[in-house]
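pasting for the record
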Amino acid sequence: MNAEMQIETQDAARVDDPFALDADERRKRRRLWIVLGAIVVLVAGGLWFLTRGGEEQVPAAVQEQEEAGPAITVMVPGSATIEGEINATGTLAARREMPVGVQGSGGQVSRVLVDAGDWVNAGQILAVLDRSVQSQQVSQQRAQVRVAESDARLAQANLDRALKLVDRGFISTADVDRLTATRDAAVARVEVAKAQLGELQARTAQLSIVAPAAGLILERNIEPGQVVGGGTGAVFLMARGGEMELMAQLGEDDLARISTGVTAQVTPVGLDRTFTGQVWQIDPVIDSQSRQGTARIALSYAPGLKPGGFATATIASGAVVAPRLPESAIQDDDGQSYVYIVDKDDKIVRRDVTTGLITDDGIAIVDGLDGTERVVLRAAGFLKPGEKVSPQVQKRRK
């Protein structure tokens, strides 16, 4: 009780004493200012460390990067055998066209036995003309042959009997000579009659229009009832052996890179099939306006090859051993091709090059590189000779 009373007495004394209350408040405020000051010092120290200390580290990293140079991708192309290819387009046509016309005097068409697109053999009948008159003429001439043969047999028999009687003196030598002459004339008339029969048969055979060789019928220009003759023109158009060709249009440079006998892959428009052919002829004349020439690619018969159709061709143009680079690595300066390479000091060096064959895998470099250089693959337009770089080597293509 005494202690509680003392505390109450002290509190009552503080309330009654205003000076004692101010001193206590001042102590609390002093402690608050000390805490705030410590916080300000800590914050200021952190800011100083971030600004002053960071400035010493960041420039060092930047300086190191600047000294190494920008990172670029390079490759060592090496050398490889590159199969050259030339792409061309052209029109399909029959390699050897054979127009088939009417022989002799002609006549009226009675039957047409084939149509366009049919395959025919040599000697096969394509159409038949009316031969009613010629058949009668052949029959009449056969009868004339038989008459002539009968006269010849009679003349021979008369001569044989005369020769038996001449020894007995019943027939004179003059009579024998006359009978001999009669026999010879009769035999000759047989030969004449047979020759006339052969002529009529040949004329009749001409009324059948036949294929001169095996091949494919491309056009049919004849119909039953039509009257045709020697001046009618071609009634059928054939492709001998069914062989086709692609008349590929090429520029002067490409024509100079190919020769007869090289292979080519031909793909007609509308087909997903490729046909293998061979260049059999190169036109010796270049068109003065288009500056192009024609390479003729022979193709064996196949149902998908249609004259007049459009096709693309990939022609082999030989092989070279050279470095090969992607198109992105090659720059152009007024027609002069060049690349950027990285030397032993990791600096950019310009190198003029000569390009060659173009393939799906890259462009051949026929002069200017030996394949051991580190060639810049991309972003060469942002570089300049003598610039320091940090090369990153990419594996070369196999």
